Amino acid sequence: MYFQRIIDLFHENFTAFEELGASVSIWRDGEEALSLAGGYKDRQKTEPWTEETKVLFWSATKGLSAACLIHACQAHGFTLATRVAEIWPEFAQAGKDRVTIGELLSHQAGVPVLTPVVSALDHQAVAAALAAEAPHWPPGQGHGYHPRTFGYLLDELLRRMTGGNPLRDYWRAEFAEILDLDVWIGMPQERVHEASSIFPAKTASPKDDSFYLAFMTPSSLTARAFASPRGLHSVAAMNSPEGRTASLGAFGGVGTARGLGKFYAMLAEGGALDGRRFFKPSTMDWMTTTLTQGPDRILLLDTAFSAGFMRDPVDASGKKLRTNYGPSLRAFGHPGAGGSIAFADPENHIAFAYVMNQMEPGVLPGPKSLRLIDALYAALPTAP
Question: Residue 335 above 80 pLDDT?
């Protein structure tokens, strides 16, 4: 059977890697080719996990948010070279007047940290603080992952482009409702009970890991970035109704693997699906073209970003240093803390999404999903 190895590995995750509840959705040529679900929504193992189970997928939200801003840029005639301050004048403060949309989307703007203490639930206060914040490195000169501020930056810029339309509403109107995706960036209050709780990792990162050491040092840029803005830091807080309903474009997306997979299937099909075109080919190039690569000032390892999406970095010869998104050099996507991941591979017309409720250490994908991705490409007769 074509997918038998993937099926076997998926089920093995529940014993070999102590997975609790998880789903995987694989799409090819615009159709769902495989959907798997297993395990439980709760640690008592009384509520079965199904293909319809929704769960928080943390930073995998960033790809959805980036798509919203890119879509709005396409509609309003803005490019990656457009300066943010042309649309959001207040952002020009403190030497940020030349920051471009491309730099904002690729984590080059230098504002992953907020100096004043502001609440993660107060969008206007966070946006004002970001506008006033001095860059923590010269914008455009290297990059550093913006783990939390990324969502507010894109949300505010989107509001300025669209006359006040917030990210959560734009996502539902322009993508989720049209494609019938069970995915939200801020769930409706009446549906928060549908989401599975997420559970923190049972083990910590290795003590000799440079990112972990920086993360545990409160004064480091890394630790400060993951604490800005304040609030909703714990898993318990994100499981609360308050956390599930908040419009958090960097880390608050909730949905099914199928919903994520179908969204990326649209991107894998060149920006069109179900008879509807969302992105022009020239706009799709923004997602498949690396804008920055090299040492990440926050994650402390080599990373690469296109316009809003993570890419696998390559060496001087063009060979991938990692294959989190498969072997194709055109693939792009985004992981979420603890193990979730979704990506599009336009070269092979493949989309992949994995979500789960038992987190593992780290911000990049782990073996639970990566070995499924490896098995997928090993089975493809057209794999590069």
Answer: yes
Over the Cα atoms of the chain, what is R_g? Answer: 19
Distance, CA of 313 to CA of 322 (rounded, Å)? 7
- Helices 4-16 and 367-379 pack at an angle, to 10 degrees, of 170
Length of the chain: 384
pLDDT surpassing 60 at residue 264: yes
Strand ranges of the sheet holding 332-335, from the earlier edge strand across to the other edge: 31-39, 21-28, 350-356, 341-345, 332-335, 310-311, 302-305, 292-295
pLDDT at 362: 84
Percent of the chain with pLDDT over 70: 98
Distance of CA 99 to the CA centre of its chain: 22
Q: Measuring CA to CA, which residue among 331, 324, 169, 170 is closest to residue 264?
A: 331
Using DSSP's 3-state secondary structure scheme, residue 80 falls into: coil
Amino acid at position 351, single letter: A
Please list the alpha-helical segments (H only) found in the chain: 4-16, 61-76, 84-87, 101-105, 123-132, 149-162, 167-171, 177-179, 210-215, 221-225, 235-239, 241-245, 257-268, 281-288, 367-379
